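In the laboratory, one determines a bound structure by crystallizing the protein with its ligand and collecting diffraction data. In a computational setting the workflow is compressed into a single prediction: the sequence and the ligand go in, and a structural description comes out. We illustrate the idea with adenosine-5'-triphosphate.
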Amino acid sequence: MNKSLTLQDVCILKDGVPLIEVNHTIQAGEVLTIMGPSGVGKSTLLSFITGTLPSAFLGTGQILLDSADITQKPPHARPIGILFQDDLLFPHMSVGANLAFGMPPGGSKTERRAKIDAGLRDVDLEGFADRDPATLSGGQKARVALMRMLLSNPRALLLDEAFSRLDADLRTQVRDLVFKTARERELPVLMVTHDAEDANAAGGKIIELRTLSKA
Ligand SMILES: Nc1ncnc2c1ncn2[C@@H]1O[C@H](COP(=O)(O)OP(=O)(O)OP(=O)(O)O)[C@@H](O)[C@H]1O
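The predicted complex, in structure-token form:
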């Protein structure tokens, strides 16, 4: 199977007027960075990929995940993980319950707990399952949010300004962890950012979106 995410002749229109166009394939472990001015349509493009495009827009073209066309699938049938800048953990649930939230159903209680414990080890948070999220540092919360997304078994990752609220050191740490994990799990990554350092760290192709027309 060819592990990849393809945006084939994708065009987002508002009121019948094309806003942005993208035509690109992201291979497993690769990062495609999308930059461009505020309001150009970067987040809207991500919502088209996750199947949550607001009704004010129309998306045309195809989205292929591992060569299969998912353009018409409902959001829950698209195995795509997304991380936002404000990926808040559910405050009324333990860290372990937050992680369980993203996991597909199935397996015994013991098996599910083993997956949570292994996930926590992967992000250097061994033993944190019973902790209250309020007692975690910003970096620890970011790592739990990353693992919650990964435990849903995504086959591609979308990052929407995912590192922008983290301070410099933490930003480098969490960003490196995300890219390393994507390479290890052979996940294509599409990253939206305003930050040139994020783009350089990704090391992949950078697309600068420009407004096709004022809608
Ligand atoms: N739900 C919506 N309904 C109508 N218009 C919207 C909606 N969401 C966003 N827009 C508009 O669509 C355009 C694209 O918005 P989008 O959030 O995709 O831009 P962006 O490139 O991600 O911007 P930023 O870099 O500031 O996050 C903007 O003009 C925005 O005002």
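The longest helix spans residues 168-184. Keep in mind that any predicted model is a hypothesis to be tested, not a measurement.
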